[in-house]
Amino acid sequence: MIPVNCAGISPSLFESQFFGHVRGAFTGAEQHMLGLVRTADGGTLFLDEVAEIPYNLQPKLLRVIQEQEVMPVGHPIPVKVNTRFIAGTNRDLREMVRRGEFRKDLYYRLNIVRVTVPPLRDRPEDIPPLLDHFCEHYARRYDSPSPAISSAVRSVLMCYPWPGNVRELAAWVERLFATGLEPEVLAEMLLVEAESPREEVAPDELSLKKLERRAIVQAMDLADSNQRKAARLLQVHRATLARKLKKHKLT
Asked: Tens of pLDDT along 190-206?
């Protein structure tokens, strides 16, 4: 699987980057290049930020997806490929089609199986496993032990709206390793930096204690009041959850 950031490809180099070229096809083409589509032959090419491909270049991509063949720059004979295309975007392609900013034929050719990923704020149950994943990832990268993240901090992270989605969560975890600050300190900093908390709350209400209570309420709602499931969501022992339920007068 080969990922490509479509927003990072120069329009003037689009054909060469995607479809390849032969030596001498243009100034600077000193050797043959397969291009992204042929490099992914037999596999998958992930078109990240597909909405950023310039409108006038979209028909070229459409033809490749439709015909499963590429025309390398400087090579007049089409080359067959067996490449699967997956496209990703954070923009509304249907609205872009309506405004004439994205080709309708390319949209319908790509829209075979659509997977919509809700923002992280709408799936707080995914935060604990993602948090652990990133802790393991950056522990290996920084060759450092993973910090212990308390249930109170986890509660804050589950209540935070994460406007930057998963990338923001990953950045928060990396900050733990890069700065050496305690998770509690960075959690408090996260609240200070928050531009739009999920609920309208006064600044003095943005405390670990209050957010822990909100996280417990949210977990219990998601678990249909099943303490075992709620404890699993919060990644705490069931006895710990029971104690906190009493502490916050939720029983």
From this structure: 876 664 444 444 444 44
83: Cβ contacts below 8 Å, ≥ 6 apart = 37, 38, 40, 41, 42, 43, 44, 45, 68
- Residue 216: which of 130, 154, 169 has the closest Cα? 154
Q: Are residues 157 and 234 in the same domain?
A: yes
Q: Do both 135 and 215 map to the same domain?
A: yes
239 within a domain of the structure (yes/no): yes
Q: Domains in the chain: how many in total? A: 2
Do 37 and 140 belong together in one domain?
Answer: no
> Which domain, by its residues, includes 156?
120-247
d(CA 42, CA 80): 11
Q: Name the pTM for this structure.
A: 0.64
Q: Do both 170 and 105 map to the same domain?
A: no
Strands 2-5 and 44-48: parallel
Give the whole-angstrom CA distance, residue 34 versus residue 36.
Answer: 7
Q: What is the pLDDT of residues 139-198, one digit of tens each?
A: 999 999 999 998 888 888 988 889 889 999 999 999 999 988 889 888 888 876 664 444
Do 186 and 149 meet the contact criterion of CB atoms below 8 Å apart?
A: no
Q: Which residue has the tokens 């291009």?
A: 35
How many other β-carbons are positioned within 10 Å of the β-carbon of residue 230?
Answer: 23
**What is the spatial distance between Cα 124 and Cα 155, in angstroms, rounded to a whole number?**
10
Examine residue 115 and state whether it is found in any structural domain, yes or no.
Answer: no
CATH (domain of 79): 3.40.50.300
Same domain, 84 and 170: no
Nearest to 45 by CA among 26, 20, 75: 20
Q: How far is CA 214 from CA 29, 120, 140, 246, in A?
A: 60, 17, 33, 14
